[in-house]
Amino acid sequence: MLFTENGFTQSEKATLDSDGHVLLPRRLTPEAQTQLIEALADIEAQTTGDPVAPRHYSAEHNAFLASLIAHPQMLALAQAALGPEIRFDHCVALNRAGGDRGIGWHSHDYAEDRSELGFVRIFFYVNGFSQNDGGLKAVPGSQLFRDPKISAPNDDALRAGWLAGKVHPSTGKPLEIVGLDAPEGSVVLMHTHAAHAVTPRQPESPMRWCVVYAYRNPGAPVSRARWITPEFEKNPPPGAAWLMPEQ
User: What are the residue boundaries of the structural domains of the chain, listed by start?
Assistant: First the structure.
């Protein structure tokens, strides 16, 4: 078992569509958490020789991570968010050691002119995080603008720039920054156009173990984040062949 529960509730799906993200606390099973930490530690060990490829192509560097691409519970979750016709886009390790500086505000691209096509990232926060310690920040409703070029180094710059004067297209309320707290074993789903950032990891904190899997509806040119080598596409893990084509 990967997850303690299957799929989505109607309320969770509504939150994802309205806010652009949804937190599913303690959704990973204890067994999955143990296996994920072992797999992600393996990825970290591989980065001593190559600091980029093992992180950007994590499923191609660890068999357990590869096996989750077409795991029945993973597919059920991705399809609950996107519908039945999906493609795998990437699997990236996002481990952050104590003292990591985090990352500023950004969004990602995909099908900006095709609102019917979705792209969702599924983050596994194996040992969780708190708001001020490698924590994820978001702007509920920002995904509805489908802007792939949101960028700001900090909260004040985002408020003075992209965020200024914007309201939620559905509720009419001003857009605001929110910080998340995630207990260990949490899963977060996020639409690709959602504005998000990560706070610095405290120096004394242990490694924040995290991996993200991305899935999308086919039908538009692939995103800049599609990291799949030709070799992996031709030789995918069991059950994943139908997820590999660009279209």
Answer: 19-234
